User: Fold these one by one.
Assistant:
Number 1:
Amino acid sequence: MTEDFNSPGYDIPPEMEGQVAITTLDKVYNWSRRNSIWPMMFGLACCGIEMICAATSRFDFSRFGMEVMRPSPRQSDLMIVSGTVTKKMIPQIVRLYNQMPEPKYVLAMGACASGGGPFKEGYSVVDGVDKFIPVDVYVPGCPPTPQALLHGLITLQKKIDIQSIKNVRWYSKDPVEAIPIPVLGPDLMDPREYELIKDYTAEKQVEEEEVPVAEEA
Ligand code: SF4
C-alpha cells in the first residue's frame, strides 16, 4: 500500500507502518476498482491494432491491472472504442454498453471514435461515439500510440480516484435507464430523438403540400 492510501492527519507509529492503515471507505473502494479495470475485448478498425500493442510485452497494460480483457460485456468494466464507428455498428455498440454492469466506463480511442476522424460527415460513419453513449476519456490521435492509450487509462484511474460512494450513479435511488438501441434503416435513427424527427417530418409534409403541383402538360 502506498502512503497515499493513508488519510492525512493520522500518525501511524513506526513499528506499525505497512501493517496498519487509517483511511476512508471511498479510498479502499476506488483503490480496488482502479487497479482491476477489465476492458472488453473488441476493436473496430486500425486503432484496435494499437490497442493490441498496448497489451503486449513492450507496453504491457497488465502493469495497471488491466490485462484481463473480457470477451463478454457482462464481465467488463471498460469499453475501449478503438476505431471508426459506423452507422451499421453503433446499434451493436450501444447494446454491448447496455449489457455491461455498473460501474462501467468508456474510453474513445482515436479521432474516429472521438469525432468521426477522417471520415467525419461520411455517409456511413457516426461523428463521435459520444452522440450515443457517455464517454469518460478521449484519447486523441490517428492512431493514438500505445503510450497515448496508456495515458488515457491512467487518466481514467485518476477519474476513479475522486469518485465517492455517496454520489456515484450506480448507487443512485433513481434507476439508470438503458440507452435505446439506435435503429438502422435508410439512415441511422436515434430513438431518443423520435419526437424531434416526428415534428420535423410533419413540418416538411405541410411545406410540401403547400407547394403548388405543376399542371401536367
Ligand atoms: S482514428 Fe485513424 S487510426 Fe484510428 S480508426 Fe480512425 S482512421 Fe484508423
Note: The chain has a mean pLDDT of 90.
Number 2:
Amino acid sequence: MVRPRPRLLDFTKTPSHLQFNKYVLTGYRPVSTAHECVRSLFYMHNELGNIYSHGIPFFLFLVLLPFSIPWREVDSIWIGVVHYLACLSPTVGSVLYHVFMNHVGGEHVYDTLLSLDMFGVCLVNTLGALPIIHITLLCFPTVQQAALLVYIFLSAYGIYCATTARTNVLRLRAFVWQVMFRFSLFLFRVYGSGAGSPDSLRLFVIMDSLAMLGGLVNVIQIPERFVPGLFDNWGNSHQIMHVMVICSIIYLHWGTLEDLTWVKNYQCPAE
Ligand SMILES: [Zn+2]
C-alpha cells in the first residue's frame, strides 16, 4: 500500500530548532521517523534541493574522481587518497544532515547531524590543503613536515570550533585561519621559493573565493530575504552555497591535478 505523503508545515508550525531561516515560509516536513525521512527523497519539500544538490555530486565524485587522479604519476599514493577523501567529505555529512534533520529524536539528533555536516566541511579544508602544503614546501623537507603537522594540529582545533559553534557567523569564523594559512602558502609560491604549477594558484584562489562567497551568501540569506516565501523550495541561499561548495571542490580537484602533473618534471634547485 502506498502511504500518502505527509502534510507539509509552515515556518511557525515547525519545531524551534528547525526555524533557522525565517525567510523560508513553507514546505517543512513534519517530525519523522528515519524511514519517513528517507521516503521524503521522493516528494517535494523545502530540503529536497539541499539533499540533491549535494547527493548527486557525491555519487558523481565517488565514481568519476578515481579515474581522473593520475595514480601512477603521483610520487606518494597518500596524496591521491587524501585528495579523493577531501573531495567526498563535505557532501556525505551534508546529505545525512539534510535528510534526517527533522528526525523524531529532536534537537539532540539535529545538533549531532549539524556537527557531522560541519565536520565534512572542516575535512575538505584540512585534507584538501595537505597536497598543497606538500608540493609548496617540496624543496624544504623539514619545514614541509613541520607545516603538515602544524596544519593538522590547528585543523583539529578548527574542527572543534566549527562543530561546537552555535551560529553561522561563528562557524564561518572557524574556517578563516585555514584560509589564511593557505593564503600564506600562495604568497610563498608567488614571492618566495614555494614549488607548484604557476597555473594551479589561480585555480586555488578561485576555489577559496567560491567557498567564502558561498558561506557569506548563506549567512546573509540572500535572495530569500528580499522576497520571503518565493525561494522556499528552489534557489534560496543555502542551495546557492551548496552549488558554490561543489564548484569549489571542482576547482580544488583541477588545481591539485595541475600541481601533480607539474611536480613530476620538477627538480628542486641545488643548494
Ligand atoms: Zn547544507
Note: Residues 30-263 form one domain.
